[in-house]
Amino acid sequence: MAARRSADPYRDTDVIDSRAARFSQGVTGIVALLGALFGWPLAWALMSAQLLLGLAAGRRWCLPCLTYFELVQPRFGEGPLEDSRPPRTANAIGTVVLGAAAAAWWLGSPVAGTVLGSVVAALALLSASTGLCVGCEIYRLGARLRGISPGHHDRIDPGDLAGLDGHREAYVEFTHPLCAECREWEQRLRSEGDRPLVTVDVRERPELARKYGVAIVPTVVAVSADGTVLDRLAP
Asked: Per the CATH hierarchy, to which homologous superfamily does domain 149-234 belong?
């Protein structure tokens, strides 16, 4: 019997099964490694083209995605759901670097091509085996720098959120209904009980996500009674 899904992999594209991301990274890493070991620049070019097609046309055109969602996930169940933007950034970086590796080889620099292909292989296999995704961390760092921070939006207007009554400090979490990590943060903050928690569903309130520069969920901040951002807890 197929395991039940809480998110449709082809419709709910703002989130992704974290296991799907690792599966795709594993495929990318193996192909990149084979290209480096056997001198197959075509392997890098084809993998780069496949990643680009998946990014541009959607998961139905991504062969590793189809394999995971149609063969693996129905048998082993859905993994934790996470924001899909960090893995997409990792795939975009892989697309560029693998394309550059193939181009370098064909332009007469096989050493440079092998180095680039090996870097992608190492990072992709590291992500697949440990969950440490360097491309994802690059995205999160960028999101943190351009998101709610003292250098950007240092205050949340209490008038935007009904739960900010202007009388005491509170936590504000920008969340998504299918985000597993968001639910973990909600449970953690509610269990502490020292401040009220106000949640903002970015699917229902995208205008607030844009207003405050929220580029990833969960984004969690502590605010003062007047909405001044006191601390950033996540990402």
From this structure: Glutaredoxin (3.40.30.10)
Below-70 pLDDT ranges, the chain = 1-3, 147-152, 165-167
For residue 28 the two structure tokens come to 């990318």
pLDDT score of 3: 61
> Which residue do the tokens 């959607």 mark?
58
Spans of all domains in the chain: 15-142, 149-234
CA 50/CA 53 separation, integer angstroms: 5
